[in-house]
Amino acid sequence: MAGQWPASPAPCALGREAARVHEVDVEVDLDEDRGSDRSSTTREVAGSDRLEDVMAAVIAEMNPTRPEILRAAPVGNVLGRLGRPFRSKKGDFYGMSGQTSRIHTFWSHSWHSSVWMKIATLLFFKNGTAAAVISLASVACVVPLYVLHVLPEFTEHCGWCSLVGSASYLLTLIFWRRSELVFVDRCCIHQTNRQLKAEGLVSLGAIIKSSDSLLVLWDPTYAQRLWCMLELAAFLHSHPEKSLRQIVVQPTITGPVSLVGSLLMITSALLSHVVGRNIPELAEKPLSLLLLLCIPIVMFIRFASAFRAYYRDVDMLGVQFGSFDVDRAECHCCALGHPEVNGMPMPCDREILRRSIGTWFGSIEAFHHQVQSEVKEALVEQLTTQVLSYWHVVKVGVPIFFWWVDVFTGNLERKLTRGEVSKIPYDLLLLGLTYWLAMIPTVALVLQRLGYVFRRQRSWTSLDVLQSSLLVACGTLVLGGYPYMEIAFDQSLREWLPDPLMRRTPFAVISFTLLLLAQWCLPHRQ
User: This protein's superkingdom (predicted)?
Assistant: First the structure.
């Protein structure tokens, strides 16, 4: 919810809505069944001349103004139509949410970050597993249809698995509708009704208290926004025993990296079927081959530079959190100079939030200490080591397995046609699993860790590009080493192990061993 509200012509602050409280008659429920102590405290604060005291007291109590204000929306509604609530500056999305008593996840993000990066990140984070499972299931259905000649042949190695698998993967990624309830500001706080909007804002503490986990969509602007830090503070206060374990940090760089990576593998698989028979001709034309390789090489260098910049931002986050101070965080109402709203001075968000945080933690200094120590370590650890986790890379890299299933299916169809039922090429499936589950994650891990080690920006642009190119060269060497290792094992063991499956097994074992060694040995923190 942090930062601006894009539904309004100008960014909306709590103070601006607070200044309208008397106009819209926002009432705080002070029923006796809430406890005499709480009622008396609230009445005492409500008697204060300063509206800031009233707003701070309501937020700090962490109780909604009324049960109907506690709302959540299904993930499918929020991410439908490519995350329309995030990317559309106009429109009423309040109807996407409904009243609830518990919220699975509170989505905390900065409205100053890239919208499309957030949408891509959320699509892979929430729909990536479903996309991988459904696409694998669709590929499993294609195999018997091709072998039984229900599907026509159009390439040497089937091709249908890559085509159907890739299509189902992308369609599921975009259109899968998860029912998990989440809080997203533009869907759960009314953007046009002043009373509902004011009640939603002052009930923010109650909303976060009712959330089981906090998802931080991190980008370099996150730690600078006062509202983002309030959400973090409210979650830490309301979940004291398990707060750090329930905070999930997802860098928004993972979205575009995952999208481009999966599209690159899909394109490569499909092109290999289309131009596969022409590769020998291309090999005789080095200039044409070089031109074909230029695009992915430039793309990989750009990605290497992006990863290095990302790790520099993580370093900056450590500095920001290490010296965090509420008084230095960016606040919209302070940037506006607190203009009058309907003849009343706009109350200051910073003062309201300072008092709420002071109530939760005993003092602002206590909150500063927790942010500068425990929170900083937890967030930096996640951002450094889990930017692309193993299972995330597996979900993104599943299209490479479709190509191997194509090769398996094409060989299986030819063997069955010739009556060689006993020679089912299981070794090809083993190779596909090895490249998918071991090689791709190892290459991604090597690039991540090297990106962290060589994150420092060079003073000369040419040297900086050269350093990114060296990272790409290292990744290319690792990537290219696997096929050579596979061929070497196959040829050297052919005399002793006539069964292809047995010859491929050592390659698979060594590949997964290298993955484990890379996870244990490559540095990820300094």
Answer: Eukaryota
Q: What pairs with residue 247 in β-bridges? A: 214
Banded pLDDT at 35 (limits 50, 70, 90)? very low
User: What does the pLDDT look like over 297-347, one tens digit per residue?
Assistant: 777 787 888 889 888 988 888 888 888 888 877 777 777 776 766 666 667
CA distance 483 to 176: 35
pTM of the model: 0.85
In this structure, the number of other CB atoms found within 10 A of the CB of residue 89 comes to 9
Q: Which of 337, 390, 405 is nearest to 137 (CA)?
A: 405
Cα 434 to its chain centre, rounded Å, is 26
Q: What is the CA radius of gyration of the chain?
A: 28
**Region 138-155 average pLDDT:** 93
CA distance 201 to 2: 11
CB atoms within 10 A of CB 271: 12
DSSP codes, 443-508 = HHHHHHHHHHHT-PPPSSHHHHHHHHHHHHHHHHHHHHHHHHHHHHHHHHSTTT--SHHHHHHHHH
Q: How far apart are CA 94 and CA 189, in angstroms?
A: 7
What pLDDT band is residue 24 in, cutting at 50, 70 and 90? very low
Residue 184 makes CB contacts below 8 A (sequence gap 6+) with 73, 78, 85, 97, 107
In the numeric block, which tokens belong to residue 485?
Answer: 């290792």
255 close to 119: Cβ distance less than 8 angstroms: yes
Task: Give strand ranges (E) for 148-269.
Answer: 181-183, 211-218, 247-251
For residue 42, the one-letter residue type is T
Distance CA 423, CA 412 (A): 8
